[in-house]
User: Fold these one by one.
Assistant:
Number 1:
Amino acid sequence: MISFDHVGKHYAGRRVLDDVSLTIERGSFVALVGASGAGKTTLLKTINRLVEIDTGAIAIEGRDIAAQPVAELRRRIGYVFQGIGLFPHMSVAENVALVPRLQGMPREERAARVAELLDLVALPADLAARHPAQLSGGQAQRVGFARALAARPAIMLMDEPFGALDPVTRDELGAAYRALHDVMGLTSLIVTHDMAEALLLADRVIVIGEGRILADQPPRALIHGAGDPRIEAMIAVARRSAARLDALAAGR
């Protein structure tokens, strides 16, 4: 679905992506994990050309993205990020229907699509008339997912989409999106600094450090054979949290 061929990116002389080559298969759920400044968000944003690469090439379904009009490319790719980015002066329905309206979808069809999407992300229909300031954080993020799905993208890019949510909402929304991914046959990439989240949500975990790929494995394989001490340290944090909870539950 997506291929990176010797991709490089520099900022002010600093190498942010260093000769990255990899392939993302159709229908896969991939987590990009790494410390702050590792290059994971930059890599994600190269796919929809929010970041333009300096060297190499990126292709979607075999077509070089550099040869495609940016607006056309982005309308085929859903994008959700931590800040959500809902337009405050627009209602929920207007936010969700924005891309279909830009694509020329008739009004009645847009209304039906909004209703379908709100149901898909488990939001009540009466929220459609509200504005973003009237929503909880979890509701607003669900609207963000609905808007990203409005144009029926095949690819979903997510940059720390659950980072600002409380733990319960974060877990519920993560599980809800994973179910959507499976039902809709999406190709999903999520950036997260939380190794536990990556291991539990994704089919494949790519660990990035200093602009290079340190590991690229399914969760079970990564847990049992990370090798790199930087990756072992991230896994150890998740293990310690789980061990502490077990100890509390056992009364130790």
Number 2:
Amino acid sequence: MPINSRVPSTRPRFPHAWRILAELKASEALPALVSLLPRLDDDVDDWIASELPSVFSKIGWESVDVLAPFAADERNGIYARGSACRSIGEVATTHPEQRGRCLEILTNILKSFEKNDQFLNAAIVSVLLDLDSVESIDLIRDAYAKDCVDLDCVGDLEDVESELGLRAERSTAPKRGKFFWRLQELSEIQEATRPRTIGPRIGRNDRCPCGSGKQYKKCCLEA
């Protein structure tokens, strides 16, 4: 997930309730469950992001009827839409007979890659990878060609092709996103500012600290 200033929510959550709804396959609760997704764009809600996709898949294929219009609606936030796409992918995994329908929904959203946020496109590509959707590769390549996929989420095109079994090895250096390079920059700054321990100064005529018994100038100083 890209760097952002959102902070964890202290709002109470009820994971046990939606787990029970999932076990009961309570399709009548789907609208209420989908209404929780916008919280992902308001705050960091790990429970919703990690558990709701499984809840939707357990309830069954009826979940797609509610998730599909939500995921396609541009008025919804990108994290909420991304989670809806992830949930659709979970349904396809749990109910293989729904795979074709779910892929059609996901690829139709991805076709708007030039209008979509890069993170949303990456979220969809990630789901397509989970579904081993080799048949979607041309659309995925088009999205990458227009630089419309967040590289921090799923890597570059060669990473995707490798995961789909379409490439045996890389032909170019890996491409990474802004988040990756920012982390590397912070790591280099941290290393540059790390306190250094300076040992005692060794004179040229002193015995070499390596233990050879020679003078420093005739041993490691010349190395």
